[in-house]
Amino acid sequence: MKGEVPVKAKVHVTLKTGVLDPQGKAVQNALGALGFGGVNGVRQGKYIELDLAETDADAARVHVEDMCKKLLANTVIENYAIEIAD
Amino acid sequence: MKGEVPVKAKVHVTLKTGVLDPQGKAVQNALGALGFGGVNGVRQGKYIELDLAETDADAARVHVEDMCKKLLANTVIENYAIEIAD
């Protein structure tokens, strides 16, 4: 898929299943303290939007995957998902 | 829409346009230092997954919207988007 429009990439970085999420736990406790019941679990991750100069979606995906592995995600404990929108 | 399955809510919290994003800027600089060119902008937000006891999607959305206003997002500088999946 090729286009003239620069590609926008959306990356979700989330903790792998089984990895403790103290930040999510804190949010869950805070929600409980505010009176919000019925919250069985909270997991917090990162959401990163990248404006790329690249106009080719496939090439952009390869670049962003590389960025995730090298900087954006800690692949020992985190998963990442890439969404390309142009 | 009613179901028997507990609802999962996905919340994106992002900085409003015009609000400086030093975290995103740091990521952008780090990507540049690693040799990733062609990155024109990076914005970093939060991604929160909530496991709710609620089984009704519409009721869940109302609850989660309330949570966003009261705790999850700082509505002065942040936008939030709610996605309900069951």
Descriptive overview:
The structure is a homodimer of 86-residue chains. Chain A has 86 residues and is an alpha+beta fold. Chain A has a domain at 8-19 and 45-85: Mth169, Chain: A (2-Layer Sandwich). The first copy, chain A, contains 2 helices and 3 strands; from the N terminus they run E-H-E-H-E. Chain A has a 3-stranded antiparallel sheet. Chain A is elongated. The model of chain A has no long low-confidence stretch (mean pLDDT 94). Chain A binds chain B through residues 6, 12-14, 24, 27, 30-31, 34, 36-54, 63, 66-67, 70-72, and chain B through 6, 12-14, 24, 27, 30-31, 34, 36-54, 63, 66-67, 70-72.
Q: What is the CATH architecture descriptor of the domain at 8-19 and 45-85 in chain A?
A: 2-Layer Sandwich
CATH homology group of the domain at 8-19 and 45-85 in chain A: Phosphoribosylformylglycinamidine synthase subunit PurS
Number of helices of chain A: 2
The span between the termini of chain A is 10 Å
Strand content bin of chain A: 25-35%
**Compute the gyration radius of chain A: what is it?**
17 Å
